[in-house]
Amino acid sequence: MYFKDFDKWNIVKKQVHTDERKVSIRAGEIRWISCGVNVGSEIDGKGESFTRPALIVHVVGSVLALVIPLSTKIKQVAGYIPFEFQGKQTSICIHQMRIVSQRRVLARKGRISENRLKEIKSEVRKFFDF
Of 31, 36, 33, which is closest to residue 48 (Cα–Cα)? Predict the structure, then answer.
């Protein structure tokens, strides 16, 4: 059974918050993101640093980014888009898309093409069609 260690995340979160490093990110990059431990069914980071890969969809000014977390779970339900990255099958979890501080953005894993990014943005629009 998965245990959400909020206390351990709180220690890591304080470190992330006080980190003054500057990152240069661009839409279309896959980056490690410090997601942390979240409430209920909100997607969590994994490991000691509570991280997971995410697609940078849009950069908001110099301090925020719109990201979509990736998952190794492949599900045929709304909100999950099958996605191959570096030869591995993953999913983009559109239903978990969020704005994050660029302080949460860590190492670069790679980049997708402009065309693939446009396709994903189109899928996002369809999913959130109000």
Answer: 36
* Number of compact structural domains in the chain: 1
Task: Residue 118: give its domain's CATH number.
Answer: 2.30.30.110
Summarised one tens digit per residue, pLDDT across range 65-106 is 999 999 988 888 888 999 888 899 999 999 999 999 999 999
Q: What's the pTM?
A: 0.89
Backbone angles phi, psi at 123, to 5 degrees: -65, -40
The boundaries of the domain holding residue 50 are 6-127
CB 88 within 8 A of CB 6: no
- Between the CA of residue 75 and those of 52, 79, 88, 90, 128, what are the distances in Å? 18, 9, 15, 10, 18
